[in-house]
Task: structure prediction
Amino acid sequence: MLPVPSPSVTQPPPAEAVTPLIRGLDVLRRLTDADGTLALAELARTSGLARSTVDRICATLAHLGYVRLDGRDASLAPPLMAVANAYLDALRLPALLGPLADRLADELDESVSLAVPDGPDIRFVHQVLRRRALSISFRVGDRLPGGGSAPGLVFRDGLPLAVDDQLVEPGLIAVAVPVRGPGGDVVCAVSVVSHTSRHGVDSLRGAVQSALGACVASMERVLGDQPQATGLRPGPRSSIAGGADFAGAAESAKAGNGSAPVVSLGRGLSVLSVFDGVRPAMALSEIASRAGLARATARRALITYQYLGYVERDERAYRLTPRVLGLGCAPLSRTTLPRIAAPHLAALSERLGESVGLSVADGDRVRCTARVAPRRVMSVDIGVGSRLPAAVTAAGRVLLGEESAGVAAVDGPEDGLRSVAVPVRDRDGRVVSALDVTAHLGRGDTDAWTDALRAAAAAIVADLHVTSRFVPVPVL
Ligand code: PHB
Result:
């Protein structure tokens, strides 16, 4: 069954397209292309939208939690990762093949990636990075030109093996091979990536060919064993124009039923997150019911997404395309726990008027990974990177797992400090960090601090969990 090609975005939008949704997606795409942050004025200038329109769209996106507004800037926020996660879950390849890619990277001690076609380009859906002094690294969600990358040549020319001899970047070399689904279609390409300081293309090919071949055979066996491989299909063959100016097209779209942007943008975006690994493709009625939308509302959102190439339809089922990863994934996955926590620490410090921080276990010590202190004459001076004995600090007690109640309070007469800490847990429930408030002895109310710490830790954990579903997030 051939997919119905998505119309090119250089065409005017269909009459039923939802203009606020087109504009909201355009803002998210521009923020993604700018690596996560843009001034509102710059968004208005480059999109051609009125500043008041940009402000309204960004306020709506902030209300949804997808964007953070900070003075004159708008930044992508972790909850937007739910959109990329919906696609990656529906695709199923990261969950099924990721562990085999990880093993190949260990075996070869080189970076390994999985990529799928995205129109004429390719998108990475899994990355295992090896840290090197000389390295550029792409992330899940990053897009490369099809003709200028090893996986792109695999898809475009149907090659059994393609090499990238510094096509993308001087010094970067890669070997890619196709992985076929049970029907014989190429579903993704697996690449081994190295550097000219370690290999030439011929020596790289020689060094990796047999392990790569064995890895692909295992991957194809895993795919063949899938009872219902509905998420596995060849990448879209439709030609979707890249980098088109959606906003200009939006100007000519009908305003439709005139509902406020805040409502129609939020409703439209809710459609993306209803897809998952269990339901990678759905009919309109199912999408509407899962999103809690009227059928007509869901239909117009889907028409808008199809027009922009984020959704494709075959027969009666709609599914997400890799282009969805262009909505925040790469910049949001290029992060660490301290960066995710930063806005929450700032809000907590402001709320309590005290110094708050994050730390990790480091042998018998705790190492501070982030700190926000209020400006005042006498304040606690614990710098990022400083190490304190774990046994005598609240953060240390939490990290040592000694506090069954999930909170540690320590009054230290010798250092004159009072500190309360709570754990931050990863998706597996492991304590990966401690969040603390620390002040001079005699200040603060432990119960009030505990409540505020718990609320802030819950917000950090929510952001960490949505971000780390398909990409590793370093704790420091
Ligand atoms: C990568 O995974 O970073 C990669 C893969 C293939 C290329 C270039 C980069 O051709």
